[in-house]
Design a protein that fits this description.
The protein has 409 residues and is an alpha/beta fold. It folds into two domains: 219 residues, no CATH class; 160 residues, Nutrient germinant receptor protein C, domain 3 (GMP Synthetase, Chain A, domain 3, 2-Layer Sandwich). Helices cover 33% and strands 30% of the residues. β1 and β2 form a beta hairpin. It is globular.
Length: 409
């Protein structure tokens, strides 16, 4: 047998073997048969023992609009629909009895939890989200304060047609411009905190802003007014998988100071010499760290924070060149505000008995032997932990001017 003939036969054998092993797109799903879920809400159902699932389904034909489009620009680009089941999995599967398109989870931005369900515990609920192959762990965990997740899913935003995009825009803005929301509040991070030793989970807290009209939008194709909107107002504090309380916006920024997650924001201080007037400072950059220690049978934590800011606006007149002590006074007042926010966050966490900072986890990393001695009684030890805060505040610039404009009287 010639070499060329042997090569041809070998190639044919390989081709046949490959053809028999290639199965093709046997599990394919056409895009026009899929319903893209943009947000998912979970509540306790009215029927005892059941879960209510509420979802945002995108309507692609209503987003583009135009003369040749199936929908119009005046039509809502999303559909809100609910279903129930004994488990989240059953409730999700039951959606197909109402939706002509199969739900697809990979684009979900949010997992919303109603307050009532969150206080009961979300361990059983969140299990399905980590098991399902379509659900991505970068989805944000949000708890609706004083409301159900189904209500939160009916809010809208004037500047975004898709509520999920509007909600994500607000989350990103409050994270980068105000530092009053948790920096990493994804499903992945929540699960890590839930399972790790010496740390409790936190989530984003959202509230509904009602407009003076009915805001149930189910069944409507057109919207002429926004019935309800939403805002991010801090953080939800968990003990294990149960919601135990809230952090307001200053307390949430105090948490972020400790965790080194403050990116920007405004600090308002009283003006030196005129306590009824204020100065606005813009945070430029910040660093935060903490060090737990075990001494004399007690745990203490030292928190170190370094922050830099610019002078943003001043009520009244100041001239730092003539009175340099004003600059030093503003830095001291800035440091005091930061320290107060940190201590407020610590006080609230200790009051709720939830180690959201991970003091215990850091002690375990630094001194595993000491942690082994106290981890079984950490719930009792954490509220008694002494926290010492050291703040270094620095004002860098005063904008385009050094002194204020002197107004003639």
């Amino acid at each position: 047998m010639s070499v060329d003939r042997a090569l041809i036969i070998s190639a044919l054998v390989i081709f046949v073997m490959m053809a028999t092993t290639i199965t093709g797109c046997w599990s394919r799903r056409e895009i026009d048969t899929i319903g893209f879920l943009m947000a998912i809400g979970v509540d306790e159902a009215q029927e005892k023992g059941k879960i209510q699932l509420t979802v945002h389904v995108a309507k692609p034909f209503a987003i583009g609009g135009g003369a040749e489009a199936k929908g119009t620009t005046e039509e809502k680009p999303f559909w809100v629909v609910s279903s129930t089941g004994h488990t989240v999995f059953e409730a999700m599967r039951n959606l197909v009895s109402q939706s002509p398109r199969r739900p697809f989870l990979a684009h979900s931005r949010f997992i919303l939890i109603g307050e009532e369900l969150a206080r009961r515990g979300i361990g059983d609920v969140i299990d399905w989200f980590q098991r399902d192959g379509e659900m991505r762990r970068r989805a944000w965990i949000v708890v609706a304060k004083g409301a159900k997740a189904s209500d939160l899913l009916q809010v809208e935003f004037e500047l975004e047609p898709m509520p999920s995009e509007g909600g994500m825009g607000i989350v990103m803005a409050t994270r980068t411009e105000l530092s009053t929301t948790i920096t990493d509040c994804t499903l992945h991070c929540f699960l890590q905190q839930l399972e790790g030793e010496g740390a409790d989970p936190v989530a984003t807290r959202a509230e509904i802003i009602l407009r003076p009209q009915e805001f149930d939008i189910r069944g409507e194709l057109r919207r002429e007014k926004v019935g309800a909107s939403a805002r991010i107002t801090g953080a939800a504090v968990f003990k294990d998988d149960k919601l135990v309380g809230w952090l307001n916006k200053p307390e949430t920024r105090g948490f972020n100071w400790i965790m080194g997650q403050v990116r920007s924001g405004i600090i308002v201080i009283k003006k030196p010499g005129e306590e009824d007037r204020f100065i606005g400072l813009e945070i430029l950059r910040a660093r935060g760290r903490f060090r737990p220690e075990f001494k004399d049978g007690r745990v203490s934590v030292t928190v170190g924070i370094e922050a830099e800011a610019n002078v943003g606006d001043v009520q009244g007149f100041i001239d730092p060149l003539r009175f340099p002590e004003i600059w030093d006074s503003m830095e001291r007042r800035m440091a005091t505000v930061i320290k107060n926010e940190v201590m407020a966050a610590v006080a609230k966490a200790q009051e709720l008995g939830s180690d959201i900072f991970g003091f215990g986890a850091e002690l375990n990393r630094r001194d595993p032997e000491k942690w082994a001695e106290i981890k079984d009684r950490w719930d009792d030890e954490f509220p008694r932990v002494g926290v010492h805060v050291e703040v270094k505040a620095k004002l860098r610039r005063s904008g385009l001017v050094i002194r204020s404009t002197r107004i003639k009287r």
